[in-house]
Amino acid sequence: MNLFVSITRCLSARLRKGQVFLHSRRHALRALALLSALLAGATSLAADRPEKQELKIGFIKLTDCAPLVIAYEKGFFEDEGLYVTLEAQANWKIVLDRVIDGSLDASHMLPGQVLGSAVGVGPRANLVAVAGMGVNTLAITLGNGVWARMKPTIPSQAGKPLHPISASNLLPVIDSASAGGRRFTMGMVFPTSTHNYALRYWLAAGGIHPGYYSASDSNGATGAQVQLSVTPPPQMPSTLGAGTIMGYSVGEPWNQQAVLKNIGVPVVTAAQIWSRMPEKVLGLRREFVDRNPRTVRALVRAIIRAEQWLDAGNGANRRELASILARPEYVGADAGVLLGPLTGQYQFERGDVRAAPTMNLYYRSYAGYPFYADAVWYLTQMRRWGQIPAPKADAWYDTVARQVYRPDIYRAAAQELIASRRMAATDLPAATAYSAGNTRFIDGIAFDARKPNAYLAQFAIGQQGKGR
Amino acid sequence: MNLERSAMMFDRVGLGWLSPLMRMAGGADRPTELRRLGENAGAPLLALLAFLALWQLGASSVQTSLGALPGPLDVAAEFGTLVDEHAAERAKADAFHARQAERDAEYAKEDPTYVPTPRRYTGRATFFDQIGTSLKTVFAGFTLATLIAVPLGLLCGSSVLIQNALNPLIQVFKPVSPLAWLPIVTLVVSSMYTANADWLPTSFIVSAITVMLCSLWPTVINTAVGVAGVDRDLVNVSRVLRLSWWTRTRKIVLPSAMPLIFTGMRLSIGVGWMVLIAAEMLAQNPGLGKFVWDEFQNGSSQSLARIMVAVLTIGVIGFVLDRVMLTMQELTARGDRHG
Fold first, then answer.
1. Which of A166, B30, B57, B141 is deepest in the core (most CB within 10 A)?
2. How many CA atoms lie within 13 A of A329 on its CB side?
């Protein structure tokens, strides 16, 4: 398109100047070359270049910022014609604000932030998610004191605590804290964060009430047995160390950091709560996506290629990844701390290292694909805990998911990669796929994304589809 | 004697420990100058060594969650790492520009109408880049503060009425911490300045204005005191000569208030530098403060040593800024006496 415009512009300029076009052989040849290039549809011509080539993209210091870091470090962004500046953000609130106000063109975001902006949980805005950025990356950690008190009640197997550990083992600790007039407090990273929902899910699955949100309670503490509060991810270990909270739910490496600092013990991982927990997405403003379709496709292509690299060769690149993420401008934690979660060797209690093969997936199991079912699950959790104050019809969940999650963009980018043989066609789910397939939850409750209200009705703790 | 004069100059600007060496070179009495050298240079040197030894010994016994507190040797090594990182980042930037030029050449071959866009390197800011940003910001804030504070001080000093009118305002705003100003400045600037041009980022304006708001007051107050203390005789003479207000200010008031104005500016730049680091930490604006905060968040085994490098750098730069202002203050004071 642009090429055509430039030819016409060149023509008309010459005509205006009174020159006769094609009056020399040089011009004739040049025009011929341009035309033949146009007909051949050469791929790197202006017509295919991204509309906006310089992008500023935000991230939070967590292992699931890896797709962005690798796309930058391995040159995938530049390869796709993008000049990207990556910028670490202090906390998730700043991420959301800066994506909405346009200071960031795109960012590593929480699915709940993108969906929440569409349904009015948090600031309202038109945001979309175009790719997934990590599956099974979080864990829940308890302070050493709490762990020492609950450990004897956990059944053991071969001398080690039997996994998954149920939150019900926490009840005596919570009861004695409240008997002593103290609140049992835990940290999570943002009200609409995966970490909030995962922590609430785990607590409720063990019969502990994490509290409801309501119009008059934006802290979500109504009826709570455990008080949840917001702390930025990298500050979790020091907040736990300072005794402000007794445990937390956060992405890696901030759980492993607690083991290293000898202040806490991870008790349950994302994959143990939900076998495939889609944790982060690449989020953008819808208006930006509409105005710069080629830029967004190029961005998604670079992310897909980075995610391929991340999961290539059965984890062959994970060591290199740990050393790249350890740089101060990225995650900045020691490579040794990052290595465990990235290579599937997860340390719970000191010395209790277990295989966690499905931790930190980026490409396997369609981890980068934004399934509508993932969006529906987050919306059901917003309803379950009262962030969405009134019951909604099943069709509403589907409509919001289709409005915010954009597998169409992911598919277009993937098809381009498949066409140039840089992606296997089998790595792209069928166009009709609504979910990643069968998954398991810690409480055994089945999730059918097509029937969100029936799903909500199964929970003993939680606001029902009908509302309470 | 030229050497004697420069030796006196060194005394004035706080480099007094060097002056005995110069005096000796100039042929002054050796034993006296040696004793002076011992007092002026030896004592601080001993104190410094004692401090380093105490630090080295004490550090290893302070255990934090990130390991033992780093000693001076670890910190020096970490400074070396930061220098290496800076060099490595520059090499990456060169490679980026080389790739860029190659790509532009390729595009131009395919499409003769292609106009290459020059692009800035997209990598991260190194420690030394952050120092540069902080210095630029503090100078911008300080210049703004001086441009406002000196005229304001002149007004206050020359009229008791204005002085009385403005004094309560000054006294109320003077003790406000940068951390209190920051949210207001951030909100106001980001709603009024939406262009956010590459060469003038919003974060820079926010930091500079915060520095300005906090470093205004010492200059205002000192200027006012300086102006109010101008020799009455000179003022009377100017009245007799019927000098205009402007000439009087330029020829009499400003020159005699100069030493105090510079004292105020010296205090201001000190305050500004301290404020800036705090503001950068809180607002995550680029600069040394952000470097410190980022390292605190990273929590790697090198983080503490890197933070200490930054702390020492902040101290040294603060010291140098102070000496520069002191020298200027001394120069104006001298000019005053000789003139």
1. B141
2. 21
